[in-house]
Amino acid sequence: MSDSTQIGGFVPRDRDWQPDALTPPYKTSIKRSPQAALLSFPSTLSEETSPVFGHNLIGKLDNDLIHNYAQAGESAIGPRIIVHGRVLDEMGRPVPGALLEVWQANAGGRYRHKKESYLAALDPNFGGCGRVITSADGTYEFRTIQPGPYPWPNGMNDWRPAHIHFSVFGHGFAQRLITQMYFEGDPHIKLCPIVGALKSAEAVDALTALLDMHRTVPMDSRAYKFDIVLRGRRQTSFENRKEGL
Amino acid sequence: MTQNLSYLKESPSQTAGPYVHIGCTPNFAGIKAYGGDLGATMKTGAVRGQEITLKGAVFDGTGTPLRDAMIEIWQPDAAGLFASANETRGQADPNFTGWGRSAGDPVTGEFTFETVKPGAVPFSDGRMQAPHITVWIVARGINIGLQTRVYFADEPDANAQDPILIRIEHQNRIPTLLADKTGDAQYRFDIHLQGPNETIFFDI
Ligand SMILES: [Fe+3]
Q1: Cβ-Cβ contacts under 8 Å, A51 against chain B
Q2: pTM over 0.90
Q3: What is the per-residue pLDDT for A115?
């Protein structure tokens, strides 16, 4: 098999690259970060398996946030964009059948949520959630409006850069990942304490989508390309088994 | 100069934030979508084995329950088989998904999973592990999803042989991984992010 679906132990997560639990400028992390060392073990079947999501799960408008909450004949307000890319593993193999669930604020930076306190207006035609499953070659795309930046209670005047939240299911529960996609050129990226949890400029770049004029639809939508990388599996017949087994 | 290994880097994690429920449990968040929330039901018909209810909550370092978390569990069926495309050992119970997702109660933060007692599955070297459920927790303030395991306090013999539990240096922390039996087929598993009862979290 040339994709990442086969069984095999997972490569350890690079904790020098991934954010730490405790990042004090992001205040909520202070009381929600474990203090003890993580318990490290090679993956077992419990982490190497994962639920299966079929393409038949996905409704016609699930990957169209411009229309999936809109009244018939109407659409969400804001800059129309296509977000597309590939889901790969660390070995560069495509991950087909990966489930991506996305959520975001509307064009004014307002979420459709009862705990939301930003005074920007709701868009009656925008719900803010969508989902898509990757194709056989690991590619995906969805259509949405570009979300706005928004203020949040952390420092006195902190604003999140415009972003789309992604939840990703690959083929092993060990690959489970939630992250955020940012937009090239957003001046809030380098001011944000949540982005600041990332340990390097390279890590920030890995979450910053580029404008992709090759996929823009003239007179309709611009496009941004966002690739996602999940943990890789070893591919070897020399797995760790007791002698004689 | 040398050659380059040219592996890719895993996408960096970012917090799920306060609005994870919009994306992952939209119906719970008041947005009608998808004909229901994924992971809300683990049983799609009559299941094999012992049906159990697993309840608990996630507490921060001050002892306050998280009311904006999302908890997922993943486990084998009663025979120890996973409902996964990667399961090669046999056919798992077709009426059991093995995967549950809960937003928790908006006031108390308590999560509830209606599931089955899992069967045992082997460790990477072939030895059997004690029955357990894999747990994954995300929330505002959690920069990268936290993974832990539910073992069962009423499986002392299996727990005493478990290849992971026996290797834990601080044996006095093992109770943080044990679900207590609180009634007939009822179990409780509280998760403490910090403090004297901090749950053991895994890097696996
Ligand atoms: Fe957000």
Answers
A1: 74, 83-84, 97-99
A2: yes
A3: 87
